[in-house]
TrEMBL record:
Family matches, as CDD domains: HAD_like (cd01427)
Name recorded for this polypeptide: IS4 family transposase
Family matches, as Pfam families: DDE_Tnp_1, Tnp_DNA_bind
Location of the Transposase Tn5-like N-terminal domain: 16-73
NCBIfam families, per database record: transpos_IS4_3
The species this protein was found in: Paracraurococcus ruber
SUPFAM superfamilies, per the entry: Ribonuclease H-like (SSF53098)
InterPro entries, per database record: RNaseH-like_sf, TN5-like_N_sf, Tn5_transposase, Tn5p-like, Transposase_11, Transposase_Tn5-like_C, Transposase_Tn5-like_N
Location of the Transposase IS4-like domain: 286-384
Amino acid sequence: MPTDGSVPVGSGDAERSWIDTEVAGCQLGDQRLGKRLRLLLGQLEQAAGSPLPLACQDWANTKAAYRFLSNERFSEDALLAGHFQATADRFANTPGMVLVVQDTTEFSFRWAKRETIGAIGQVPIGLDRNGKPRILTQCGLLMHGSLVVTREGLPLGLSAAQFWSRKSFKGTTELKRHVNPTRVPIEDKESARWLSSLGHSTRLLGDPGRCVFVGDRENDIYEFLCAAKEAGTHFLVRTCVDRLAGDGHRTVARMMARVPASGQHKIEVPDAKGRPTTATLQLRFRRIHILPPIGKQKRYPALDLTVIHASEARKPRGRARIEWKLVTDLPVNSMRSAIEKLLWYAQRWKIELFHKVLKSGCRIEAARLRTAERLTKLIAMFCILAWRVFWTTMVARTTPFAPARAVLTESEAVLLDRTVRDQPSTPAAATLSRYLMKIACLGGYLARARDPPPGIIVMWRGWSRLADMMLGADAMQQKCG
């Protein structure tokens, strides 16, 4: 079994399912609750994206699931504790630098009541009879997650997850007119979630020197950069703040404007209609002494960071002009190193795909649970299932020659061989990529010569159909036996 983090140890053992591996570290306070968690995860896996009653099949199991989600003896953190530990184990078996991608997503529930679920924002929905704007308060939850990803793009699992909702929005606009947001301590703002996720992830993984925290422009927080340095870890953040630099008389943008381009790098990006186009980026990079915000210079130190600018010289037709401004504490002394950092930042999109699995595959926003506590626990369980589908989608691309038993049981492999014929593009050997291709075909993948690798939603549908086929095969075996 490889030890590069690509295949979790024991995940393909027929005597111990992958669910047992992911929940082994959960401490729910009662052995019966642990058994119910395993059973409920298995039911949700077999009925991907279906309502809870359909997944549980009968009233007894459905009522037990509702009682489990309403139990006040444990929280969503306890449900994810086992998965966090499994992620740390996979991280320990992965050599070299590993990326920790952070981002926030919203789950909106149109049917929900603000009193029981909470709110996530306000949106205009037109005008009333007097011509005044009508404002709708969206009910829902927010989740901030940290996804551990290898440099090749294989998701190893979540290392942190936070759930919350907002209680009130009254007076926030008026408050901003009198209080400068930059003067408010980070501990009193929602932005503190970036720092707390960093702290939880570094403590969990245990080797901060091998971690690179990757974030978008919302992550461009000076307190976060200082916290990463204090924790002994690294970061790669897309910046949006033009901070003071050098002796304080110039900004980062003015200093980078004088840096000549070190070379060009071509990437493939889709246009507005989804057609592939080639973009030529000019790269500039420089080590710069960056100063903290004026109101926080007594509390935080100045930092020596590397700034990387990658942009197109001209605006292309059919799409927006690419302009990335990245900041990192890692040294960049060559074009090769700068391109490496661009490729690392491109892996930030993996957490967006993870959120897509949660919303489009698991269909979390269609859940009809009435309280925020139940919903957060359900989302926590779906996070484990979404990671599993995401991992099986990407593992065939990063380690195509891994053994099939790393993911599938022997009975699943036999059933796939009997029911799904090999496509022209299917590998001949009994490798993991061969059987994952068969699962993708169950989900509607055509496997034509020029087709891209199967995506997450296709794999999700394939796994769901395979689960139904396994249930039918087991029923026939019991009947004939």
